[in-house]
Amino acid sequence: MRSTDPIYKQYVQILEEELIPAMGCTEPIAIAYAAAKARAALGMLPETCHVEASGNIIKNVKSVIVPHTGGMKGIEAATCAGIVAGNAEARLEVLSDINAAQQAEIAQYYASHDITVSPAHNGKIFYLCVTVGAGNDCASVTIEDSHTNITRIERNGTCLFQGSASCIDAVPTQRTDHSSLSVERIIEFADQLDIQDIEAPISRQIEYNSAISREGLEHAWGAQIGRTLLAMRGNDIKIRVRAVAAAGSDARMSGCELPVVIVSGSGNQGMTASLPVIAYAEERKAEKELLYRALVVSDLITIHQKSSIGCLSAFCGAVSAGCGAAAGIAYLDGYRYDVIAHTIVNTLAIISGMVCDGAKASCAAKIAMAVEAGLMGYEMYLNGRQEFVAGDGIVIKGVDNTIRTVGRMARVGMRETDREIIDIMTETVRK
pTM here? Predict the structure, then answer.
């Protein structure tokens, strides 16, 4: 694969689009972003605010702490933070510059204003509309399909901006086409890659995600999964690759104000795809260039899987990222398509049943288990080429075919599971 090939250019663009910084869990941050945009469109501090959101957004915002709010959780907290102090131009870093005085203003606004919330019933997996009002004026901002994909801005019934939204379960139309992704091509791309073409997003991924992982290991954030793993099971590399990823989630889900570089719209997936590979490379004293290539493998294999699943579902995204991390580790060890393909299939056969019940402290534990499953899938194949084969449950012949099958299960088969999870979490009964 040459740098002039269209697929090579697509893969570089995919990495540039997907590996972006975000401060805070991406679903509440998307709400804060929409709220900040709505206030900007209104032109004044709103007196009223209503949030309409799809069930998966409600699920992922319910239990996670919003950064720079003093420990506040939920849709109302994210909305207030965006309205009062959000930087409407900063996208997924909308809350990154809030100071202590503004934090007090957020708390005051939260206490004195009712933020109403209703579920969206339009069939969209990712849908968010924030409507604000003051006096006789009102404004609204709609986001669909991905966290910053604004499809409409309105003020007093006049459309100020009209963007594009894709059909249900599809990706936004302005993103680079992911259909060219395949495991074999991803490995070929990593082998032939000119490091300068991806150095900016990958170096930022290493810097940001390593920093929040250290924070999670050094301080008592969340359920302390990362710290517990090291304290109870030692500092062996097989434990450390799980601990570093879990520790990043420990901190992030509990309101840590350090940014991360996300993958497939998720900070947890971004950390899971990168931190085990970084730790393993440090243990092996791998050269910087090899680490970058291995991270490209992990990131793109994670993205490849998520492209079949969709942005949000009942399928835990840590599974895809843990699978990607194991592939990246295999790449670091010098293995290529045969071992990596079987590692992916083995991992998916082991842990594809793990569900997503929203963003919260237990995500760190799920990340640790996903990375462990990835390592098991890798070690199975190294130990006498043990493998799960076509006909073993949902496994079918060909790694990319198995990825698509798992995507179908997650996207279509788990819809009812997703609805039931959302009902349980929101304590509603679907009629």
Answer: 0.90
